[in-house]
Amino acid sequence: MGERHVRRDVLAIAPAGRERMRLAKPKEVAGGLAAVTKSFRYGIAEAGLLRTWKTMRTVNRFDGYDCPGCAWPDPDGHRSGFEFCENGAKAFATEATKKRVTPELFARMSVEEMSRKDDMWLDKQGRLTHPMVLESDSSHYRMISWEAAFEMVADAIRALDDPDEAVLYTSGRTSNEAAFLWGTLARQIGTNNLPDCSNMCHESSGYALSRVIGIGKGTVKLEDFAKSDMIVVIGQNPGSNHPRMLTALAEAKQAGASVVSINPLVETGMGRFKHPQQPLSMLGRGTRIADEHLQVRVSGDAHLLKGLCKVVLETGSIDREFIEEHTEGFEDFAAAIETVTWADIVSGSGVEQEDIERVGKAIASSERMIICWAMGLTQHRNSVAVIQEIANLLFLGGHFGRPGAGACPVRGHSNVQGDRTVGIVHHPKPSFIAALNEATGITAPEQGGLDTVEAVKAMRKGKVSLLMAMGGNLLSAMSDTEAVAEGISQVDLTVQISTKLNRSHLVTGNRALILPCMGRTEIDEQESGPQFVSVENSMSVVHSSRGSLPPASPHLRSEVSIVCGMGNATFGDSPFAWQEQPRDYAGIRSLIERVIPGFDDYEVRVSQDGGFHLPNAPRDGRVFPTDTGKAKFTVHSLPGPVAAAGQFTMMTVRSHDQYNTTIYGNDDRYRGIYGARRIVLMNRDDMARLDLSAGDEVDLTSHFEGEERHAARWKVVPADIPEGNVCTYFPEANVLIPLESVAEGSNTPTSKSVAVSISGPN
Ligand SMILES: Nc1nc2c(c(=O)[nH]1)N[C@H]1C(S)=C(S)[C@@H](COP(=O)(O)OP(=O)(O)OC[C@H]3O[C@@H](n4cnc5c(=O)[nH]c(N)nc54)[C@H](O)[C@@H]3O)O[C@H]1N2
Ligand SMILES: Nc1nc2c(c(=O)[nH]1)N[C@H]1C(S)=C(S)[C@@H](COP(=O)(O)OP(=O)(O)OC[C@H]3O[C@@H](n4cnc5c(=O)[nH]c(N)nc54)[C@H](O)[C@@H]3O)O[C@H]1N2
Ligand SMILES: [Mo]
Questions:
Q1: Distance separating alpha carbons of residues 317 and 618, to the nearest angstrom
Q2: Whose CA is nearest to atom 27 of ligand 2?
């Protein structure tokens, strides 16, 4: 592997710029007219009036493209002309933008110069237009032909000493078709090194649920919301991250459901909501969403959920029939709950006993309860235990396989669930490998591969020579940015298949390729005509997505055609017909149908309006495909505190103006923070104790197993957050999250529980 002298000053994190912060009162109402005007304003600025109008009319329509914003499902029956939300509109506009990152920009600016710009600047340069290469001795990217790029990849694959020196990352926007081929390429190379964004996201949910209900997915359909009498939203901020979920919650409320929010912050969407697409709802005060808010301490959910289970057990109103017939481990579970004391529950959760008792009684009397959660639960050391505690609470009331009830992990990326379904797994089942071999003729390895954390560790040990990414921004999305950068710089060739410029294009291996691809909104013309792709949403509905805009550049290729270009250059058509695949994506779908259970009649069913539901045994028939055929109550000990005395427990969240590492703007409108992202939300009493005022700049130091990590200059923002907790934005704060700090079992970085100390003001 070559040495890098030319680009040693490339920055792995955006330099802390001068931010002029303005604070206002947090918003009390989500949605409303402001959401509509913001989405159009942003759309028109990026994509122009006509394209905005045209695309916003086709998003999430049966014949349109799947919104790249999030994995929340679309209503089955009637769909309005505008089935979108403010943040979906922004996600569309960043892709449909008229701006372009041309070869001229790369010629003008060195990689090092680009790295001095912030992440928003990188994204705002527009869509990538040409394949580009960065040679080992060069400071600038230059143009390369597709053929030469594919040859470079093929040479690198052939040069591997061991197939496990290759790592193929996937981000969850990739279609089922492209993801299936991506997994196949990895396995023909001979590795299961398929780290995925979900390793940093809902891995804890999949890991926890598959062990206790036999399937790693949620068990509700969208229509269940309107049938439910109790919906718990825990560790999730739907107002910013799944705005269309507020519609489902508002409808459930109107049908009589109670909504309980469990969150260290009082997030705007859980207060009042005005439907941005219903004129009547825009007037007046909007619908009140949450009936109860339990302001749990960060990482205090294990205690709180045990408290809720305790109350339900004490009321005696449990579903004995369900428990007896479908579960095991109840006795041990009930005995263990009895030993947990209220003193522990209250001090660990930060919630008063009477509040837990009141909500616990309401839960006990619910006949149809749904529990929704997202990153607030999945990114802690004890995440798997907490999610299994949620399953315990649902088991007590028999809330599986019954309309209006179930577990609802709300996924992030619009096709992250689909990618996993079609084979982006680093520990594939033998049955999958056998079926894949049979359908493709390749010989896939059975030995497990690396997830994101393990892949970074392998890179740092110099064990990875080829890193390829199907979308995403691994460098900035992962914990411990400097450690990731150090790992990546030891790789020989890094390859990014991307739509937009990001920091993973700048912090590279010895040599690097950028392969620009089409996005969802674009017309994908192949030999047999325009193609559609398919995706699976958070509720296991598989449906089609078809773009309507001309591609951002004539040089773009589809993700499918790029994977096949690599496959063909490396392996030719033996034994798998790589060259054939892009001609007609129906052929890829028929392969998926042969390999993955549940996809029978894929082509026909995916072409129907709204697509089809994948089978889901617990939901469809109270069948729990665990090793014993029973749903499992589990017992977990209570976790100790994250932070030592004098330290704070830090969570890292999204603002209202970003999509993961893509920064749209510097305002967090709902939280009342304008013009700044290097902020730290703090409790007012903590501020007083440290003699801090709003706007003061402090330094943060994280602590983990004797190691320290530092990040300077964070502006203090007073907030309604529990004492001892602070909150920052990702990706800026990722430098503080230790690579080794992961959830037990799922290996997910603990992005929501980092021990930090605060120094300053400076
Ligand atoms: N506009 C927009 N939409 C998105 C995304 C985006 O970046 N922008 N990202 C997409 C992706 S990939 C994902 S995974 C989802 C993420 O969706 P969310 O999970 O809603 O995203 P976060 O901003 O990480 O918010 C986590 C929430 O959990 C709370 N929380 C943190 N720690 C705890 C805790 O210990 N206990 C409890 N009970 N709550 C806690 C925080 O206060 C916050 O409200 O959104 C998807 N949709
Ligand atoms: N501290 C902290 N870290 C976190 C989180 C957190 O809450 N806190 N959340 C984690 C979570 S939940 C997730 S999912 C990860 C996200 O990790 P990733 O999925 O890796 O990151 P994104 O920022 O979503 O990726 C954005 C890039 O994807 C590319 N892209 C966009 N659309 C397309 C497309 O259609 N095709 C292709 N090929 N490329 C495309 C663009 O180049 C864009 O710059 O981050 C994780 N990191
Ligand atoms: Mo995610």
A1: 22
A2: 472
